[in-house]
Amino acid sequence: MEKQRYERPLIQKLENNMPNKFGTRTESAPMTHIDDVAVKDLMDKYGSPLFVISEKTIRTNIRKARKAFETRYPKVQFAWSYKTNYLDAVCRTFHQEGSWAEVVSGFEFDKALNNKVDGSKIIFNGPDKTEDDIKKAISNNALIHIDHLDELYSIQEIAGEMKKKARVAIRVNMDTGIYPMWDRFGFNYENGQAWDALNKIMRSEVMVLEGLHTHIGTFMLSPNAYAVAAGKLADLAIGVKDKYQHEIRYIDMGGGFASKNSLKGTYLPGSDMNPSIDEFAEAIASTLINSNFPPDKLPLLILETGRALIDDAAHLLGTVISNKRLSDGRRTTIIDVGVNILFTSFWYDHKITPAQPFTQYTENTVVYGPLCMNIDVIRDNINLPLLNKDDHIVIQSVGAYNMTQWMQFITLRPPIVMIDPEGEVHVIREKENLDRLLEFENVPEHLKDFTL
Ligand SMILES: *Cc1c(COP(=O)(O)O)cnc(C)c1O
């Protein structure tokens, strides 16, 4: 007979379906399937941990977002924010749904070109565009969103040398009532920097002012901040028309809408509290329509929504390594998912659901990752049913920023699969391996041999 695992007993109060401040326990069902594919089968086949992306959810999200804006405003264009998740399969899903590409580096620009996005449908943001990046953007007819005056002068010079007009917009930062203000990017509205840049562009022979851009922050919880920002961009656009008889083609409101995740330290869960896309759409569209644009001259409205469209489309599956007690008796569960692949655990309280049936008994638990680092905490306090070694868990809504900000540290990064709308599973990024990683390393000749 197999020897049973033994843990010294500890007397601790267990909660038996006790109501908490939101009513009775909400996470009473295990998450055994994702889009009808069994979590257990996925783990058996691809190992643990494993990122799982639902193509169906991505498509539903972008269609819902488009509908929210298109029912309120006549001309709308989404551009997928590459840095939020630049896996080619994810980007191409958005491109198939009609989204342009929004990139913030030469690398991302190349990735968009490689995904066959026409250069004129690539929006190039960010403070770090090299001269080569600018040349590439101009020759591809991309939309260059200028961040600072040094960049403006570089574009002026490079476009002059190339004898080709650069299609530009400026990024504008402004007081929207949200503090701290994101005023390190772009030109300020209130102190006149924005007008300064606009005048320079309008007087230039080699730049065409196509639009105005802002990106007021990320995980914004206030639709009203977008109304304020849209109003200020509309003022600038109408000012340019009055002064130069030049019509701006688009207003780009950036990204930043909150997803339904819960920020650490918030009292109510994000699913109850965070505004819906409709609320953001209403704030932006009604401001633009109510501004002084003639009704037949409304600019195209561009949105660079990232996290709100992808967060809930991805889950991270993991496995329990061990349970133990801290010195003060608190229950801890160690899982094979560390903060190096789940960056967002630093600011979200990610929902964690067991992937198999479990007891009704729960206990407050600290969930640790596998790294030899004290900061490797996935949840510092979560009410979880009692899990055993080798049980599987599903960490929900991890689609934004984790698969781009992750790092290879102590462990190799896990594979990523995507479930297509027919329920077929595709590996869209392979599990890392030592050989591939070593391809980047060189050992100098004199360090090759040693005796111990
Ligand atoms: C990061 C970024 C976005 C996307 O932001 P989300 O918060 O993911 O919606 C959009 N535009 C710009 C300029 C960005 O830097």
Q: TL;DR of this structure?
A:
The chain is built from 13 helices and 21 strands.
Report on the architecture of this protein.
The chain is α/β, with parallel strands linked by helices and 452 residues long. It has two domains: 19-53 and 312-434, Lyase, Ornithine Decarboxylase, Chain A, domain 1, CATH 2.40.37; 125-305, TIM Barrel (Alpha-Beta Barrel), CATH 3.20.20. 29% of the residues lie in helices and 23% in strands. The protein contains 13 helices and 21 strands. It has helices at 39-46, 55-70, 88-96, 106-114, 131-139, 149-162, 193-203, 223-244, 270-273, 277-290, 307-310, 402-405, 434-438, and strands spanning 15-16, 33-34, 37-38, 50-54, 76-81, 100-103, 122-124, 143-146, 166-173, 187-188, 207-213, 250-252, 300-303, 314-325, 331-335, 352-354, 361-368, 377-385, 392-395, 416-419, 425-429. Strands 1, 4, 14, 15, 16, 17, 18, 19, 20 and 21 form a ten-stranded mixed beta sheet that branches. The protein has an eight-stranded parallel beta barrel with strand order 5-6-7-8-9-11-12-13, surrounded by seven helices. Strand 8 (143-146), helix 6 (149-162) and strand 9 form a beta-alpha-beta unit. Helix 2 runs parallel beside helix 10 and helix 5 (131-139) crosses helix 6. The longest helix has 22 residues, at 223-244. The radius of gyration is 25 Å and the shape is globular. The two termini are 45 Å apart. The mean pLDDT is 94. Pyridoxal-5'-phosphate binds next to helix 11.
